[in-house]
Design brief:
Length: 352
Amino acid sequence: MNDFRAIADRVEIEALRAEFTDALMMRDRPRLAALFTPDGVLRMPNIPVEQVGREEILAGGERLQSQWDFFVQNTHPGTIVLDGDTATGRAHIQELARSLDGREGMNFAVYHDRYQRTAEGWKFAEREYEVRYLDTSPLTGGAPRAHEAAPGFDAPAPDERLRRAADALRAGGFAVEILDDAAAARARVRELLPEGASVFTGASETLRLSGIEEDISRSGRYDAVRPRVLAMDRATQADEIRRLTASPDAVVNSVAAVTETGSLVLASASGGQLPANAGGAARAVWVVGAQKVVPDLASALRRLEEYVLPLEDARAQAVYGKPSAVNRLLVLNAEPVPGRGTVLLLREAVGY
């Protein structure tokens, strides 16, 4: 084999392994699945999990990542043995993680890999995860909540402020429930949504982190709009996408802020998720972490611009490769249709 070809192959395989870690860290599940051949296999016997094919790897990544509070993976160089258009190798891994249910720890592991040269470059044909060391002692650190966003908007509001916001929302016609945590909200959303209903979920970290998005999209209990829309061609099916997202039976979303004067504030770069929230959906459920409670509308707009937007911009850059923006703004001051809108206020901070 030409020495330069061998060097290029090794560099590309190392880049493939690095991109796997980057996709995990950025929670970019479609990119992660695309790193495998169409019939590629990802095995994690410690869970235990075996995912065959890109669709299973994508779905499995969504299930796993929906459980994370935070996750850090470092990949260290291992071995690569080239054999024409195939190769084998090992990559050495160190990880720190905490799940939403409180499980946490550190481990050292090895990926045992098979690689395949394809028309798109080198891909994983098989990746098997072997844990070599596991420490489940409580981690002394945690994920920073503000990143580069303005400080002061990430602390959960105390019960007194939650009750004040709840009272003001009820006065405006919203149904309001104060719940302890995301798990309670997840269970309550299941109770609120009738089985078989068409349900549209907004692009929300709160819904993703709580597992509510997964319940709606993958449980089979509902006619989930978001997975259908994501599979459609935006160039040729734009009208159908608009109708599906604008008037479902129910919309489930979060908000950028809720005020103690009784307003809900939502923002969007495209505006696609706002019509259903504004009144297009027959029923609406908003799941709101305690850190989103602010005194008034001016504070809500400041929270949106100084805190939410920088975090959403970082997420959009990582997932979509383009920046976010507050191009559309929706303020709900009241709910004129009795029984339509329910706000689930949580005592814990979830999402941003």
